[in-house]
């Protein structure tokens, strides 16, 4: 398993051809208290960079982009009742959606954990 | 173009720093650009700060707001030409919420007006203060002197424990009721304190010389029930309290009647008129306005934000002017401006959010009851 990161603060965990996507701890800290998450439904197709989910804090709504192209196989329905999971466990149980990769080579353009940490430190 | 050039130059002017800028940062305040200042939007988090204020006492730095003095010859008369409130008979140390009106009756700003021994003391919105000053200078006779007190900071101490907290430092403030004000001292600080605020809670606004602002904030935050609170919670608190925010729920096109602020038009002024835009405002007061500001209860958990269009079936009937999540209620709420035919409490509407329709219902405001400190009826 390997984990990748985007400049838009999404993380992608890849196992076989299934990618699990969420937002980073840095992102949830910037957002503050998450009160609503809109996750995509099974079967939806996204190209890399498409708006795939919406996360809302007390103050503002933010788009979550699909870091890679693929077809949704599962949205995290638990977030409908417990949006605060995004704050308490952003890089674990607070994941947003899983998709089946259509072009695994897109992963090569993403950052690894070390590179992401450096990127965030420079913000 | 000259105007473009000026606009471009203005955009390059950096934000001003609050007197307490370093104080906020040292306490974990996350600073954002607002009304030309770097302002603390939150410290530990909007939700926790909001709930703290509803249960304890929150200290807000609102020094970006304009504190303005009117002195000279007949400032009452001059002010009454641009606000619809009764000013002439406002007693000393009493205050009134009012509206600065343009010639067409649109609201240029909302403000608090206090009669003091030697002057009228106004508190106006930070984003409007220079426009307000320019408008008053243009409208008022030269004999009225208008002074911006930019060497004074302003704090709001709000919440059910605010009274007890402030009285532990200044026992005499306990004598103030809602919308009363007075001069007080603490140590070597001269303070102007009013029992007012914009959260729906009991509380105070405290004007202090900038040189003493940090000392006062430290004295207040040393009290167990008091914490510094950011602008984020100030916004969610005032939304729950059903209070309009200028630039969002009110603007220069909106009349006081459309803004559901008819209470701000005093009895004598209704009879006599004589204020900017009186024809439109008094006409709408008797004949009704085409639109009205309403509260909206939102179904489900998804917040409906400012700008969302409101529909009755296929018909566009208004838009959301403020919206967010209400921490005290655990649900989204909003305010909107809708056509008069759809403004009755209980009217079912839909808000469009990113192509999706969300059911909303016109609801009574405030969403959370006000808890102002008023004299109890004998």
TrEMBL record, chain A:
<dbReference type="InterPro" id="IPR003016">
    <property type="entry name" value="2-oxoA_DH_lipoyl-BS"/>
</dbReference>
<dbReference type="InterPro" id="IPR033753">
    <property type="entry name" value="GCV_H/Fam206"/>
</dbReference>
<feature type="domain" description="Lipoyl-binding">
    <location>
        <begin position="18"/>
        <end position="100"/>
    </location>
</feature>
<comment type="subunit">
    <text>The glycine cleavage system is composed of four proteins: P, T, L and H.</text>
</comment>
<dbReference type="InterPro" id="IPR011053">
    <property type="entry name" value="Single_hybrid_motif"/>
</dbReference>
<dbReference type="Pfam" id="PF01597">
    <property type="entry name" value="GCV_H"/>
</dbReference>
<comment type="function">
    <text>The glycine cleavage system catalyzes the degradation of glycine. The H protein shuttles the methylamine group of glycine from the P protein to the T protein.</text>
</comment>
<comment type="similarity">
    <text>Belongs to the GcvH family.</text>
</comment>
<protein>
    <recommendedName>
        <fullName>Glycine cleavage system H protein</fullName>
    </recommendedName>
</protein>
<keyword id="KW-0450">Lipoyl</keyword>
<dbReference type="InterPro" id="IPR017453">
    <property type="entry name" value="GCV_H_sub"/>
</dbReference>
<dbReference type="InterPro" id="IPR002930">
    <property type="entry name" value="GCV_H"/>
</dbReference>
<feature type="modified residue" description="N6-lipoyllysine">
    <location>
        <position position="59"/>
    </location>
</feature>
<dbReference type="InterPro" id="IPR000089">
    <property type="entry name" value="Biotin_lipoyl"/>
</dbReference>
């Amino acid at each position: 398993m390997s984990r990748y990161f985007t400049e838009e603060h999404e993380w992608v965990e890849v196992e076989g051809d299934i990618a699990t996507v969420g937002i980073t701890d840095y992102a949830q800290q910037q957002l503050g208290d998450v009160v609503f998450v809109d996750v995509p439904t099974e079967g939806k197709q996204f190209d890399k960079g498409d708006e795939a989910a919406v996360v809302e804090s007390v103050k503002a709504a933010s788009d979550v982009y699909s870091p890679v192209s693929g077809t949704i196989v599962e949205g995290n329905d638990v977030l409908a009742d417990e949006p605060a999971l995004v704050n308490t466990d952003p890089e674990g149980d607070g994941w947003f959606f899983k998709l089946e990769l259509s072009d695994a080579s897109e992963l090569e353009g993403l950052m690894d954990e070390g590179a992401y940490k450096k990127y965030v430190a420079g913000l | 173009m000259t105007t473009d050039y000026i606009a471009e130059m203005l955009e390059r002017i950096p934000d001003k720093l609050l007197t307490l800028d370093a104080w906020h940062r040292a306490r974990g305040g996350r600073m954002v650009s607002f009304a030309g200042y770097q302002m603390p939007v939150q410290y530990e988090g909007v939700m926790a700060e909001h709930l703290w204020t509803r249960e304890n006492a929150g200290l807000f730095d609102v020094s970006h707001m304009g504190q303005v003095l009117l002195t000279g010859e007949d400032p009452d008369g001059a002010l009454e030409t641009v606000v619809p409130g009764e000013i002439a008979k406002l007693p000393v140390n009493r205050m009134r919420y009012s509206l600065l009106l343009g010639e067409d009756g649109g609201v240029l700003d909302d403000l608090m007006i206090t009669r003091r021994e030697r002057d009228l003391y106004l508190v106006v919105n930070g984003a409007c203060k220079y426009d307000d000053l320019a408008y008053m200078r243009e409208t008022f006779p030269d004999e009225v002197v208008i002074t911006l007190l930019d060497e004074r900071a302003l704090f709001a101490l709000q919440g059910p424990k605010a009274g007890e907290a402030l009285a532990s430092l200044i026992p005499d403030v306990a004598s103030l009721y809602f919308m009363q004000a007075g001069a007080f001292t603490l140590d070597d600080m001269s303070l102007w304190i009013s029992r007012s605020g914009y959260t729906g809670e009991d509380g105070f606004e405290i004007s202090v010389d900038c040189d003493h602002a940090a000392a006062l904030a430290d004295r207040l935050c040393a009290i167990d029930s008091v914490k510094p609170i950011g602008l984020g919670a100030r916004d969610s608190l005032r939304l729950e309290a059903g209070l309009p925010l200028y630039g969002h729920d009110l603007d220069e096109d909106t009349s006081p009647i459309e803004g559901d602020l008819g209470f701000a038009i005093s009895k004598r002024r209704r009879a006599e008129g004589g204020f900017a835009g009186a024809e439109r405002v008094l006409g709408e007061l008797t004949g009704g306005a085409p639109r009205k500001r309403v509260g909206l209860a939102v179904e489900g958990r998804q917040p409906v934000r400012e700008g969302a269009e409101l529909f009755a079936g296929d018909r566009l009937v208004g838009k959301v002017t403020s919206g967010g999540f209400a921490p005290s209620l655990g649900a989204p709420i909003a305010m909107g401006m809708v056509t008069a035919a759809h403004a009755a409490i209980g009217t079912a509407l839909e808000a469009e959010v990113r192509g999706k329709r969300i059911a909303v219902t016109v609801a009574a405001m405030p969403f959370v009851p006000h808890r102002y400190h008023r004299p109890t009826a004998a």
